[in-house]
Amino acid sequence: MSIMFSRGSALWIIGFVAIALSSPSAWAQERIGSAQALEGNVYLRHANETEFRTLATGNPASLTDTYQTDKNSKLWLKFNDDSHNSMGQLSEIYYYDFEKSGPASFFGADMSGGTIRFIKKLPKTSPASAYILTTPTAIIQVEPTDRPADFVISVYNPKQTTVTVVWGRVRVKNVLEELKTERVLTSCQSVDIDEGKEPSRPIVVSSDTLKELIDQTTIPRTLPVDVPRCEESYVSQPPSLNLGAPPDVGVDIYYPPQIVPEPVRPCGPCEVWDGDDCVPCRWIGMDCIGGRCVRRDCPKCTVWDGSRCITCREIGRECAHGRCVPAGCRDCTIWDGRRCVPCREFGMACEGGRCVRKPCGNCQVLHKNRCVSCGELGLVCEGGRCVRKECTGCSIWNGHRCVPCEEFGKVCVGGRCVSRRDCDSCTFWDGKRCVSCAEMGMTCIGGRCAHRPCGPCQVKHGADCVSCEAAGMTCIDGR
C-alpha cells in the first residue's frame, strides 16, 4: 500500500536533527548508551577525532559517534531510551540526534553501509516522538505500535537500501523530496529503495529469511530471536464487507467505521490477496504449485532472488556450510553486496588498509555518505554545531522554517500547536479538520452527526446507500 505525504507528515523532516560536538569537554555530557557486547574487531570514532579506535565492551556511546564493524564482527548497542542497534559485519552508522523535549523523544542516525538490526518501541506523545534512520537512498521512520518495532536495514551498495520488518510497523520513502510515495511495512514484509526511484511494492518474506537476518546481525543470547510465522501472512480470500453501527446517544465526536468493499470475486488459482487486490503469485516472488502461491525452498549454496533459486556466485558471494556469505575484500576496498569496491566509491578514505570516514567540519553534518551544511538539512548553525531552530508561539518547525499551526491542520492553544477536536454544531472532527455531516454522507440530528438510514434492501457503502446486489449480498425480507 502506498500513500502520499500530507501536510502533517512533513513532521518527518523534524527527524533530521544533528548535534555535532566541537570540544572534548562537551563529550562526557552527551552519552546516549553503551556497547553491551561485541564479537571480532569493532571500531569507534568520536566527532572530535580523525582516527578510529578499537571498541571494548562497556564503552559508552555518545552523540556524533561513528561505529564500524570489521569482517566477521558484530556489535550490540543499547541506548538510554531502551532502544537497541545490533550491527552485522562490514557495517557503519553515525548517530546525529538523541534528544528529549517534554514527553517527546527524537532519535536520528545515518547508516552508510552493511546490515543493522533496530529495535524500538515508539510511544504516542504530543508533540509526536520520532525515530528516524537515513541511508544513501532511504528514510525510515518507526510507527507507534503495541509491540516494539524490530526491523533490519541492509545497504549493500550506495544505490539500494532494503528494509525488512520482523515485528511492528515502519514507514519508508526515498530520500529525494520530489519522490513522495511512502510504503508502510508490517511483520514479514520487505521493500527495496533504489536511487532515484519510488520504493518497490512490499513483498512477503519467509520466516527463514527473518531468522537469517537476525543471525547475520545479532550476537547469540543478547536480543530476542523469535520471528512471526510469515507463511500465514497471506490469505487466499479478500476481507468481507464490514458495516459499522451508528453513534450512541450522547456521543459528540464520531469516527465513522472504515468500509471495506466486497470484491466481485474471490482470488482465483495462482493468485493471492495483497491487501489491495488479487495479484499473481509471481508478483510477490512466489511460485504457483497446485493452484496455491508458495515460496520455493532452495538447495544449499543457492538463494531465492524473488523469482528463482540462484547460486551464491551469481550475487558475488561465496558458499560456506551451504549458505551464501560475503566474500573477503582486499585492503582499501569494501563489500557493497555484490563485489569489492574502492573506499572512494563510498565517499571514504583508506587508512591502514581500512575504509574510514573523515569527520565533518564546523557547521556540517554527515548525511548520505557526505558532509553537508546545516542549511541543506533545514538546520541552523550555532557555535559550529547544527541544531534545530526553536519556533516561538503559534508556529512549528517544518524542517526549513517556522510556519503557522494552520499549515499543519492544527490550532494554537496557549502558544502551542495542538490538534483541533472541538467542532461546531452539525460538524465533527475527522482527524484533520472539522467537516460537515453532509460531507460524510450523514445527517444532522439535534446538532450531532448520525448515519442517514438506508431503505429496504440497501446497505451503507461509504457515503452512499447501495443495493444488496451491488454489495455482493442477497436481500431477504427487506434486509
TrEMBL record:
The keyword DNA-binding does not apply. Residues 1-28 form the signal peptide. The lineage of its organism: Bacteria, Pseudomonadati, Thermodesulfobacteriota, Desulfomonilia, Desulfomonilales. This is FecR domain-containing protein. Residues 65-171 form the FecR protein domain. InterPro entries: FecR. It holds the Pfam family FecR. Coiled coil: none annotated. Keywords: Signal. The keyword Cytoplasm does not apply.
